[in-house]
Amino acid sequence: MTEFTIIGGNVAGLSAAFHLHELGHEVHVYERDIWNKPCGGGFTIDFHQYLQEKWHVYLEEAHQGRDVIVGLPSGKHVRLKSPFVVTTRKELQKKLIQKAKELGIEITLTGKRLSFKEVIELCTPQTIIATGYSKITFQALNQKWNPRDVAHIVRFDGIVSNAKYPDDHIVIIDSKVLGYGWFFVGDGRHVNVGIGGETKSLPRGFSWKQYFSEFLGMLESKYEVYIHDDLEIKGWKLPLPYDKWKYSISNVQNGIEFIGVGDALGLAHPLLGAGIEPAWLSGKCLAIAVDTKGQIDVNKYQKILRKNIEVTSCRKIDIILAKLLRKPIPKKNALTYYTLKFLKEKMLTEMLKKPWYMLHET
Ligand SMILES: Cc1cc2nc3c(=O)[nH]c(=O)nc-3n(C[C@H](O)[C@H](O)[C@H](O)COP(=O)(O)OP(=O)(O)OC[C@H]3O[C@@H](n4cnc5c(N)ncnc54)[C@H](O)[C@@H]3O)c2cc1C
Question: How far apart are alpha carbons 76 and 223 in whole angstroms?
Protein backbone atom coordinates (compact mmCIF):
# COMPACT_ATOMS: atom_id res chain seq x y z
CA MET A 1 0.00 0.00 0.00
CA THR A 2 1.39 3.43 -0.97
CA GLU A 3 0.43 6.92 0.14
CA PHE A 4 -0.39 9.45 -2.55
CA THR A 5 -1.10 13.15 -2.33
CA ILE A 6 -3.52 14.50 -4.90
CA ILE A 7 -3.71 18.25 -5.47
CA GLY A 8 -7.08 19.23 -7.01
CA GLY A 9 -10.37 17.60 -6.10
CA ASN A 10 -12.62 17.71 -9.09
CA VAL A 11 -13.27 15.02 -11.71
CA ALA A 12 -9.68 13.99 -12.51
CA GLY A 13 -8.33 14.16 -8.96
CA LEU A 14 -11.33 12.36 -7.51
CA SER A 15 -11.23 9.67 -10.19
CA ALA A 16 -7.57 9.04 -9.36
CA ALA A 17 -8.52 8.97 -5.67
CA PHE A 18 -11.43 6.52 -6.16
CA HIS A 19 -9.38 4.15 -8.31
CA LEU A 20 -6.20 4.25 -6.20
CA HIS A 21 -8.27 3.74 -3.05
CA GLU A 22 -10.05 0.81 -4.71
CA LEU A 23 -6.64 -0.82 -5.21
CA GLY A 24 -5.86 -0.40 -1.51
CA HIS A 25 -3.68 2.73 -1.60
CA GLU A 26 -3.95 5.61 0.83
CA VAL A 27 -4.85 8.91 -0.77
CA HIS A 28 -5.19 12.42 0.53
CA VAL A 29 -6.89 14.96 -1.72
CA TYR A 30 -6.39 18.70 -1.25
CA GLU A 31 -8.99 20.90 -2.94
CA ARG A 32 -9.61 24.61 -2.68
CA ASP A 33 -13.39 24.36 -2.29
CA ILE A 34 -16.64 22.92 -3.62
CA TRP A 35 -17.51 25.58 -6.15
CA ASN A 36 -19.06 26.25 -9.51
CA LYS A 37 -16.00 26.51 -11.69
CA PRO A 38 -16.97 27.50 -15.25
CA CYS A 39 -18.12 24.33 -16.99
CA GLY A 40 -21.07 23.32 -19.15
CA GLY A 41 -21.77 20.33 -16.95
CA GLY A 42 -22.73 18.11 -19.88
CA PHE A 43 -21.76 14.42 -20.10
CA THR A 44 -23.21 11.25 -21.58
CA ILE A 45 -26.19 9.37 -20.19
CA ASP A 46 -23.87 6.37 -20.07
CA PHE A 47 -21.41 8.10 -17.71
CA HIS A 48 -24.31 9.25 -15.55
CA GLN A 49 -25.54 5.65 -15.27
CA TYR A 50 -22.04 4.39 -14.54
CA LEU A 51 -21.65 6.88 -11.66
CA GLN A 52 -24.90 5.58 -10.20
CA GLU A 53 -24.28 1.90 -10.72
CA LYS A 54 -20.59 1.63 -9.95
CA TRP A 55 -20.10 4.37 -7.35
CA HIS A 56 -23.63 5.08 -6.08
CA VAL A 57 -23.24 8.75 -6.94
CA TYR A 58 -26.71 10.19 -7.58
CA LEU A 59 -26.98 13.55 -9.33
CA GLU A 60 -30.40 14.94 -8.54
CA GLU A 61 -30.02 18.00 -10.75
CA ALA A 62 -29.06 16.04 -13.89
CA HIS A 63 -31.41 16.76 -16.76
CA GLN A 64 -31.50 14.97 -20.11
CA GLY A 65 -33.52 17.35 -22.27
CA ARG A 66 -35.35 16.24 -25.40
CA ASP A 67 -32.97 16.76 -28.34
CA VAL A 68 -29.64 18.30 -29.18
CA ILE A 69 -29.81 20.85 -31.93
CA VAL A 70 -26.50 21.44 -33.69
CA GLY A 71 -26.60 24.46 -35.93
CA LEU A 72 -25.16 27.63 -37.35
CA PRO A 73 -25.78 31.27 -36.41
CA SER A 74 -27.94 31.51 -39.56
CA GLY A 75 -30.49 29.14 -38.02
CA LYS A 76 -29.64 26.14 -40.23
CA HIS A 77 -29.44 23.12 -37.98
CA VAL A 78 -29.74 19.38 -37.49
CA ARG A 79 -31.48 17.61 -34.65
CA LEU A 80 -30.43 14.53 -32.67
CA LYS A 81 -31.91 12.75 -29.69
CA SER A 82 -30.03 14.02 -26.64
CA PRO A 83 -27.18 11.63 -25.78
CA PHE A 84 -26.20 13.58 -22.66
CA VAL A 85 -27.36 15.00 -19.36
CA VAL A 86 -26.54 18.38 -17.88
CA THR A 87 -25.93 19.18 -14.25
CA THR A 88 -23.95 21.86 -12.46
CA ARG A 89 -20.24 21.40 -12.04
CA LYS A 90 -20.79 22.14 -8.36
CA GLU A 91 -23.29 19.31 -7.90
CA LEU A 92 -20.95 16.85 -9.62
CA GLN A 93 -17.99 17.86 -7.45
CA LYS A 94 -20.07 17.92 -4.25
CA LYS A 95 -21.50 14.45 -4.80
CA LEU A 96 -18.12 12.97 -5.78
CA ILE A 97 -16.50 14.48 -2.67
CA GLN A 98 -19.33 13.15 -0.49
CA LYS A 99 -18.80 9.67 -1.92
CA ALA A 100 -15.02 9.91 -1.51
CA LYS A 101 -15.49 10.72 2.18
CA GLU A 102 -17.91 7.79 2.61
CA LEU A 103 -15.30 5.50 1.05
CA GLY A 104 -12.77 6.67 3.62
CA ILE A 105 -10.70 8.85 1.30
CA GLU A 106 -9.14 11.81 3.08
CA ILE A 107 -10.26 15.14 1.64
CA THR A 108 -9.07 18.52 2.88
CA LEU A 109 -10.84 21.63 1.65
CA THR A 110 -8.17 24.29 1.99
CA GLY A 111 -10.51 27.26 1.49
CA LYS A 112 -7.91 28.90 -0.76
CA ARG A 113 -5.62 28.12 -3.66
CA LEU A 114 -2.51 26.45 -2.31
CA SER A 115 0.78 28.05 -3.26
CA PHE A 116 3.48 25.89 -4.78
CA LYS A 117 5.45 26.17 -1.55
CA GLU A 118 2.48 24.85 0.42
CA VAL A 119 1.99 22.06 -2.10
CA ILE A 120 5.61 20.95 -1.70
CA GLU A 121 5.04 20.52 2.04
CA LEU A 122 2.07 18.22 1.44
CA CYS A 123 3.66 16.08 -1.23
CA THR A 124 4.30 12.36 -1.23
CA PRO A 125 7.24 11.16 -3.40
CA GLN A 126 4.77 10.76 -6.26
CA THR A 127 2.14 13.49 -6.19
CA ILE A 128 -0.80 13.75 -8.54
CA ILE A 129 -1.53 17.10 -10.14
CA ALA A 130 -5.23 17.42 -10.89
CA THR A 131 -5.43 21.21 -10.83
CA GLY A 132 -6.66 21.80 -14.39
CA TYR A 133 -5.70 25.07 -16.04
CA SER A 134 -3.99 26.61 -13.04
CA LYS A 135 -0.77 28.16 -11.82
CA ILE A 136 0.05 25.05 -9.83
CA THR A 137 -0.14 22.97 -12.99
CA PHE A 138 2.31 25.29 -14.75
CA GLN A 139 4.67 25.17 -11.78
CA ALA A 140 4.50 21.49 -10.86
CA LEU A 141 4.33 19.97 -14.34
CA ASN A 142 6.24 22.79 -16.00
CA GLN A 143 3.32 22.92 -18.40
CA LYS A 144 3.83 25.69 -20.95
CA TRP A 145 0.76 25.76 -23.16
CA ASN A 146 1.08 27.24 -26.60
CA PRO A 147 -1.59 30.02 -26.70
CA ARG A 148 -2.95 28.43 -29.90
CA ASP A 149 -3.78 25.34 -27.89
CA VAL A 150 -5.83 27.25 -25.32
CA ALA A 151 -9.47 28.24 -25.75
CA HIS A 152 -11.15 31.15 -23.99
CA ILE A 153 -14.68 30.50 -22.79
CA VAL A 154 -17.35 32.64 -21.13
CA ARG A 155 -20.49 31.23 -19.64
CA PHE A 156 -23.52 31.84 -17.44
CA ASP A 157 -24.70 29.03 -15.18
CA GLY A 158 -27.74 29.49 -12.98
CA ILE A 159 -31.47 29.87 -12.60
CA VAL A 160 -33.41 32.14 -14.95
CA SER A 161 -36.85 33.51 -14.15
CA ASN A 162 -37.66 35.76 -17.07
CA ALA A 163 -37.14 33.24 -19.86
CA LYS A 164 -38.84 30.91 -22.32
CA TYR A 165 -37.08 28.17 -24.28
CA PRO A 166 -37.60 24.65 -25.62
CA ASP A 167 -36.42 21.58 -23.67
CA ASP A 168 -33.54 21.10 -26.12
CA HIS A 169 -29.80 21.60 -25.82
CA ILE A 170 -28.41 23.80 -28.55
CA VAL A 171 -24.86 23.86 -29.92
CA ILE A 172 -23.93 26.56 -32.42
CA ILE A 173 -20.76 26.15 -34.43
CA ASP A 174 -19.46 29.65 -34.87
CA SER A 175 -16.72 30.35 -37.37
CA LYS A 176 -16.28 33.90 -36.09
CA VAL A 177 -14.64 32.74 -32.86
CA LEU A 178 -13.31 29.48 -34.33
CA GLY A 179 -15.26 27.68 -31.68
CA TYR A 180 -18.83 27.21 -30.61
CA GLY A 181 -21.55 28.41 -28.31
CA TRP A 182 -24.03 26.36 -26.36
CA PHE A 183 -27.33 26.62 -24.57
CA PHE A 184 -27.87 23.70 -22.18
CA VAL A 185 -31.14 23.14 -20.37
CA GLY A 186 -30.88 21.91 -16.81
CA ASP A 187 -33.40 20.89 -14.22
CA GLY A 188 -36.24 23.34 -13.48
CA ARG A 189 -35.23 26.85 -14.54
CA HIS A 190 -31.52 26.05 -14.61
CA VAL A 191 -29.66 26.94 -17.80
CA ASN A 192 -26.03 26.92 -18.80
CA VAL A 193 -25.13 29.10 -21.74
CA GLY A 194 -21.74 30.04 -23.06
CA ILE A 195 -19.44 30.59 -25.96
CA GLY A 196 -15.78 29.99 -26.54
CA GLY A 197 -13.03 29.77 -29.07
CA GLU A 198 -9.49 30.50 -29.96
CA THR A 199 -8.44 33.89 -28.60
CA LYS A 200 -5.36 34.15 -30.81
CA SER A 201 -7.39 34.53 -33.99
CA LEU A 202 -9.73 37.26 -32.74
CA PRO A 203 -9.55 40.84 -33.98
CA ARG A 204 -8.16 43.56 -31.72
CA GLY A 205 -10.70 44.98 -29.30
CA PHE A 206 -12.90 41.87 -29.47
CA SER A 207 -15.12 41.74 -26.39
CA TRP A 208 -16.38 38.39 -25.14
CA LYS A 209 -19.00 40.18 -23.04
CA GLN A 210 -20.43 41.92 -26.06
CA TYR A 211 -20.18 38.78 -28.15
CA PHE A 212 -22.05 36.84 -25.47
CA SER A 213 -24.98 39.25 -25.69
CA GLU A 214 -24.93 39.02 -29.50
CA PHE A 215 -25.00 35.23 -29.07
CA LEU A 216 -28.12 35.52 -26.86
CA GLY A 217 -29.71 37.75 -29.51
CA MET A 218 -29.01 35.14 -32.16
CA LEU A 219 -30.47 32.37 -29.96
CA GLU A 220 -33.61 34.47 -29.61
CA SER A 221 -34.03 35.30 -33.28
CA LYS A 222 -33.10 31.90 -34.71
CA TYR A 223 -33.67 29.29 -32.00
CA GLU A 224 -36.64 30.52 -29.90
CA VAL A 225 -34.58 30.98 -26.73
CA TYR A 226 -35.90 34.06 -24.94
CA ILE A 227 -33.87 35.09 -21.90
CA HIS A 228 -34.60 38.49 -20.46
CA ASP A 229 -32.70 38.12 -17.19
CA ASP A 230 -29.38 39.85 -16.64
CA LEU A 231 -26.85 37.07 -16.97
CA GLU A 232 -23.60 37.33 -15.08
CA ILE A 233 -20.88 35.63 -17.05
CA LYS A 234 -17.57 34.14 -15.96
CA GLY A 235 -14.58 33.52 -18.18
CA TRP A 236 -12.13 30.66 -18.16
CA LYS A 237 -9.35 29.13 -20.20
CA LEU A 238 -9.19 25.54 -21.30
CA PRO A 239 -6.21 23.80 -22.91
CA LEU A 240 -7.36 21.97 -26.04
CA PRO A 241 -4.26 20.75 -27.90
CA TYR A 242 -4.69 18.52 -30.97
CA ASP A 243 -1.45 16.83 -30.08
CA LYS A 244 -1.80 16.08 -26.41
CA TRP A 245 1.47 14.18 -26.21
CA LYS A 246 3.80 17.07 -26.87
CA TYR A 247 3.09 18.35 -23.35
CA SER A 248 4.57 16.88 -20.22
CA ILE A 249 2.71 14.21 -18.33
CA SER A 250 5.12 14.29 -15.38
CA ASN A 251 7.96 16.33 -13.99
CA VAL A 252 10.49 15.86 -11.20
CA GLN A 253 11.17 18.83 -8.94
CA ASN A 254 12.53 19.08 -5.38
CA GLY A 255 12.82 15.28 -5.41
CA ILE A 256 9.07 14.93 -6.01
CA GLU A 257 7.61 13.31 -9.07
CA PHE A 258 4.53 15.27 -10.13
CA ILE A 259 2.15 13.34 -12.40
CA GLY A 260 -0.75 15.01 -14.21
CA VAL A 261 -4.34 13.93 -14.84
CA GLY A 262 -7.31 15.56 -16.60
CA ASP A 263 -7.17 19.17 -17.78
CA ALA A 264 -3.66 19.50 -16.35
CA LEU A 265 -2.69 17.40 -19.39
CA GLY A 266 -5.12 19.14 -21.79
CA LEU A 267 -7.18 15.98 -22.24
CA ALA A 268 -10.51 17.55 -23.26
CA HIS A 269 -11.89 16.93 -26.77
CA PRO A 270 -9.95 19.18 -29.19
CA LEU A 271 -13.07 20.77 -30.59
CA LEU A 272 -15.96 20.24 -28.17
CA GLY A 273 -13.89 21.00 -25.08
CA ALA A 274 -15.69 18.16 -23.30
CA GLY A 275 -13.24 17.06 -20.65
CA ILE A 276 -15.23 15.52 -17.81
CA GLU A 277 -15.12 11.95 -19.12
CA PRO A 278 -11.50 12.09 -20.37
CA ALA A 279 -10.56 13.44 -16.91
CA TRP A 280 -12.29 10.48 -15.30
CA LEU A 281 -10.55 8.06 -17.66
CA SER A 282 -7.13 9.53 -16.84
CA GLY A 283 -7.62 8.83 -13.11
CA LYS A 284 -8.42 5.21 -13.91
CA CYS A 285 -5.40 4.85 -16.24
CA LEU A 286 -3.13 6.30 -13.57
CA ALA A 287 -4.33 3.83 -10.93
CA ILE A 288 -3.80 0.77 -13.10
CA ALA A 289 -0.26 1.92 -13.86
CA VAL A 290 0.81 1.33 -10.24
CA ASP A 291 3.41 -1.44 -10.29
CA THR A 292 4.01 -4.26 -7.81
CA LYS A 293 6.24 -1.99 -5.70
CA GLY A 294 3.39 0.48 -5.30
CA GLN A 295 4.96 3.06 -7.65
CA ILE A 296 3.13 4.72 -10.51
CA ASP A 297 4.98 3.57 -13.63
CA VAL A 298 4.78 6.80 -15.59
CA ASN A 299 5.71 5.21 -18.93
CA LYS A 300 2.99 2.65 -18.51
CA TYR A 301 0.55 5.36 -17.49
CA GLN A 302 1.33 7.44 -20.56
CA LYS A 303 1.01 4.40 -22.84
CA ILE A 304 -2.36 3.32 -21.44
CA LEU A 305 -3.68 6.85 -21.34
CA ARG A 306 -2.65 7.55 -24.90
CA LYS A 307 -4.12 4.31 -26.24
CA ASN A 308 -7.43 4.98 -24.53
CA ILE A 309 -7.70 8.68 -25.34
CA GLU A 310 -6.93 7.88 -28.97
CA VAL A 311 -9.85 5.48 -29.26
CA THR A 312 -12.29 7.67 -27.34
CA SER A 313 -12.22 11.48 -27.23
CA CYS A 314 -9.24 12.16 -29.47
CA ARG A 315 -9.57 9.91 -32.50
CA LYS A 316 -8.01 10.83 -35.86
CA ILE A 317 -11.40 12.06 -37.08
CA ASP A 318 -11.76 14.34 -34.03
CA ILE A 319 -8.38 15.90 -34.78
CA ILE A 320 -9.23 16.39 -38.46
CA LEU A 321 -12.59 18.01 -37.63
CA ALA A 322 -11.07 20.17 -34.92
CA LYS A 323 -8.32 21.37 -37.27
CA LEU A 324 -10.88 22.15 -39.91
CA LEU A 325 -13.22 24.04 -37.63
CA ARG A 326 -10.48 25.89 -35.80
CA LYS A 327 -8.98 27.26 -39.01
CA PRO A 328 -10.31 30.37 -40.75
CA ILE A 329 -11.22 28.78 -44.08
CA PRO A 330 -13.77 30.10 -46.59
CA LYS A 331 -17.32 28.68 -46.68
CA LYS A 332 -16.71 27.04 -43.35
CA ASN A 333 -20.26 27.40 -42.08
CA ALA A 334 -21.69 25.68 -45.17
CA LEU A 335 -19.07 22.96 -44.91
CA THR A 336 -19.93 22.40 -41.25
CA TYR A 337 -23.63 22.27 -41.98
CA TYR A 338 -23.38 19.68 -44.76
CA THR A 339 -20.92 17.56 -42.78
CA LEU A 340 -23.40 17.52 -39.90
CA LYS A 341 -26.40 16.91 -42.11
CA PHE A 342 -24.96 13.87 -43.84
CA LEU A 343 -22.84 12.41 -41.07
CA LYS A 344 -24.77 13.24 -37.90
CA GLU A 345 -26.04 9.71 -37.10
CA LYS A 346 -22.71 8.10 -37.95
CA MET A 347 -20.76 10.67 -35.93
CA LEU A 348 -23.00 10.12 -32.92
CA THR A 349 -22.93 6.31 -33.07
CA GLU A 350 -19.16 6.31 -33.48
CA MET A 351 -18.83 8.69 -30.55
CA LEU A 352 -20.99 6.58 -28.27
CA LYS A 353 -19.55 3.22 -29.36
CA LYS A 354 -16.55 3.60 -27.08
CA PRO A 355 -17.57 5.52 -23.94
CA TRP A 356 -15.00 8.18 -23.12
CA TYR A 357 -14.81 7.53 -19.39
CA MET A 358 -14.13 3.84 -19.79
CA LEU A 359 -10.95 1.82 -20.13
CA HIS A 360 -10.89 0.03 -23.50
CA GLU A 361 -7.23 -0.86 -23.95
CA THR A 362 -4.63 -1.96 -21.41
C1 LIG B 1 -16.77 27.10 -19.70
C2 LIG B 1 -16.46 25.65 -19.78
C3 LIG B 1 -17.45 24.76 -20.15
C4 LIG B 1 -17.19 23.38 -20.18
N5 LIG B 1 -18.20 22.52 -20.48
C6 LIG B 1 -17.99 21.19 -20.43
C7 LIG B 1 -19.05 20.27 -20.65
O8 LIG B 1 -20.22 20.65 -20.83
N9 LIG B 1 -18.77 18.95 -20.62
C10 LIG B 1 -17.51 18.48 -20.39
O11 LIG B 1 -17.31 17.25 -20.39
N12 LIG B 1 -16.49 19.33 -20.15
C13 LIG B 1 -16.70 20.67 -20.16
N14 LIG B 1 -15.68 21.53 -19.89
C15 LIG B 1 -14.36 20.97 -19.55
C16 LIG B 1 -14.38 20.41 -18.13
O17 LIG B 1 -14.86 21.38 -17.24
C18 LIG B 1 -12.98 19.99 -17.73
O19 LIG B 1 -12.38 19.24 -18.75
C20 LIG B 1 -13.01 19.16 -16.45
O21 LIG B 1 -13.58 19.89 -15.42
C22 LIG B 1 -11.59 18.71 -16.10
O23 LIG B 1 -11.54 18.26 -14.79
P24 LIG B 1 -10.21 18.35 -13.92
O25 LIG B 1 -10.55 17.67 -12.64
O26 LIG B 1 -9.05 17.89 -14.71
O27 LIG B 1 -9.95 19.91 -13.69
P28 LIG B 1 -10.83 21.03 -12.99
O29 LIG B 1 -12.27 20.77 -13.17
O30 LIG B 1 -10.29 22.32 -13.46
O31 LIG B 1 -10.51 20.84 -11.46
C32 LIG B 1 -9.31 21.27 -10.91
C33 LIG B 1 -9.53 21.48 -9.43
O34 LIG B 1 -8.29 21.82 -8.84
C35 LIG B 1 -8.52 22.81 -7.86
N36 LIG B 1 -7.31 23.61 -7.73
C37 LIG B 1 -6.65 24.25 -8.72
N38 LIG B 1 -5.60 24.90 -8.23
C39 LIG B 1 -5.59 24.67 -6.89
C40 LIG B 1 -4.74 25.07 -5.84
N41 LIG B 1 -3.69 25.87 -6.05
N42 LIG B 1 -5.03 24.66 -4.56
C43 LIG B 1 -6.11 23.85 -4.34
N44 LIG B 1 -6.94 23.44 -5.31
C45 LIG B 1 -6.68 23.84 -6.57
C46 LIG B 1 -9.69 23.65 -8.40
O47 LIG B 1 -10.39 24.28 -7.36
C48 LIG B 1 -10.50 22.61 -9.14
O49 LIG B 1 -11.58 22.13 -8.38
C50 LIG B 1 -15.90 22.90 -19.87
C51 LIG B 1 -14.89 23.80 -19.50
C52 LIG B 1 -15.17 25.16 -19.46
C53 LIG B 1 -14.08 26.09 -19.05
Answer: 10
